[in-house]
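Let us work through a complete example step by step.
Step 1: write down the sequence.
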Amino acid sequence: MIRNTVLPIEKIRYPVAIGLARYVLFTLTNLYPRGQREDDMKHKHLDATDLRILSAVQAHGRLSKTRLAEFVNLSPTPCWARLERLKAAGYIVGFHAQLALSKICDFSEVIVTVSLMQHRKSDFERFESRILATREVVECAATGGGMDYVLKFVTPSLAMFQHVMDSLLEAEIGIDRYMTYIVTRRIKSQQPDLSALVDRRA
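Step 2: predict the structure and record it as tokens.
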């Protein structure tokens, strides 16, 4: 029988093997294309100008050649050539607008933590395959520790969220227990500070 618990989370012990760090944020797993060489993704291949370009497009999205050059303090042609190289290497996977969703429509946002019954590779793959195909799940992270996954659902209503959750349970994808947290107010949401992440000289 699948158990659903709403706040608070109880401390649950699992075998040591389950505690292995398995952190996969689906938004982050898509930062680089599959098969790309690991060496190409390490920041040692990026110089200060590359980082300024990446920071500029992260903060401002798609920019004109002239505007990007102003942010980076480099002449437009070589600046644009660097941008194209960074895109070709997989450092930039797209440009997206950040929408004020609350001004567009009503919606419900729910955070769900999930623990699976079994913890074989096939169990994780089965669950993740279904989650990838569920459009109402906008974020999913595999975690080490008490729970196996943390998911974020965005649906038109709480009733629709429950319908989606029921369909996942009926799909028999190995869910043992889950806990739901209704988001009442967003306090902070932003991109990480790229310079702070890659500057290890500090």
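Step 3: interpret the result. Strands lie at 3-6, 24-25, 108-116, 137-142, 149-155, 175-182.
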